[in-house]
Amino acid sequence: MKILIAGANGQLGQAMLRVCADLQLPHCGVAHAQMDITDLKQIAAVVEREQPTYVVNMAAVSDVRAAQSDAAHCYAVNRDGAANLARVCAEHSIPLLHLSTDYVFDGQLGLPYTEEHKPNPQNVYGNSKLEGEEAVRELCPQHVIVRSSWVFAATGNNFFARTLAALQRGDSVQAANDQIGCPTYAVHLAQVCAAILQQVDCDTDPPLWGTYHYCDRGPTTRYDFARTIATTFAQRTEAPEPKVEPIDSSALNDRVYSARHAVLATEKLFFTFGIRQRGWRQGVKRAVEVAAQHGLTE
Ligand SMILES: NC(=O)c1ccc[n+]([C@@H]2O[C@H](COP(=O)([O-])OP(=O)(O)OC[C@H]3O[C@@H](n4cnc5c(N)ncnc54)[C@H](OP(=O)(O)O)[C@@H]3O)[C@@H](O)[C@H]2O)c1
């Protein structure tokens, strides 16, 4: 087994590198500068050189706002880049594990979304990720697509890291109490990806290719997520607990982030792979610890 990780410098890519090292899974991470997934020839050259048995696509334009303001670039990476990887993988009969998002759904169902629910993306990011999924399904039959939500790590451009930075500066934090989802610690998600690959590697009959949902356990609001970060931060630093204020998404005056209820149902993953959900609060504790080890400055 050898896992090639595309987008290795991202928050999930970094977590995947660590998990592979911890599990002693042979792997090779390639950052954007080493392999641009919009460049088919570059992908082919890296695959020729590294001879992986699996490719994991953790490369993406993942910033929902940036996606909205530069749609052409977002589609080039999230749709066409995914298609490029799928083409090269299919040519070499290499299975592809591809990451996707709850943003393929409209967030209006009011119930957890299963893999059977019809996607209905509401923004450029969600639509580009859906079209990326479709390309992977069409071009590379040996694929696993993992949809997840609200991925966070100690560093990187994510809600956790932005909230922690604001708390460190002593800024008050406002967070929406009408956006409901499941925060997911990047390390937990990387562990799920590694566990899937280890089982797929067993060549089961029938094979386990398909689309699966994983998010950490416990739907919550952005407000409760921010409050948990603040409480955990205050416990760690023994400082008074900073104030976090709940607000309506409408008050944010934000076209991209609006009120939504996007919880992913994870039963299919459990019944197929026996993988249970981890708790996101445990992930928050761990991420605050990791940030503290880095001086709580990143
Ligand atoms: N973040 C979330 O809340 C979330 C939720 C659900 C699913 N996901 C999915 O999980 C995956 C990983 O996301 P993440 O949170 O780890 O995002 P991230 O931290 O933004 O990492 C994405 C990485 O992709 C790289 N990249 C961008 N364009 C590229 C290109 N053309 N070729 C190669 N690499 C490129 C970026 O490098 P540069 O920065 O150098 O461009 C970055 O290192 C994505 O598929 C995302 O859609 C994320």
From TrEMBL:
<comment type="pathway">
    <text>Carbohydrate biosynthesis; dTDP-L-rhamnose biosynthesis.</text>
</comment>
<dbReference type="InterPro" id="IPR005913">
    <property type="entry name" value="dTDP_dehydrorham_reduct"/>
</dbReference>
<comment type="similarity">
    <text>Belongs to the dTDP-4-dehydrorhamnose reductase family.</text>
</comment>
<dbReference type="InterPro" id="IPR029903">
    <property type="entry name" value="RmlD-like-bd"/>
</dbReference>
<dbReference type="Pfam" id="PF04321">
    <property type="entry name" value="RmlD_sub_bind"/>
</dbReference>
<comment type="function">
    <text>Catalyzes the reduction of dTDP-6-deoxy-L-lyxo-4-hexulose to yield dTDP-L-rhamnose.</text>
</comment>
<feature type="domain" description="RmlD-like substrate binding">
    <location>
        <begin position="1"/>
        <end position="289"/>
    </location>
</feature>
<dbReference type="InterPro" id="IPR036291">
    <property type="entry name" value="NAD(P)-bd_dom_sf"/>
</dbReference>
<protein>
    <recommendedName>
        <fullName>dTDP-4-dehydrorhamnose reductase</fullName>
        <ecNumber>1.1.1.133</ecNumber>
    </recommendedName>
</protein>
<keyword id="KW-0560">Oxidoreductase</keyword>
<keyword id="KW-0521">NADP</keyword>
<dbReference type="GO" id="GO:0008831">
    <property type="term" value="F:dTDP-4-dehydrorhamnose reductase activity"/>
</dbReference>
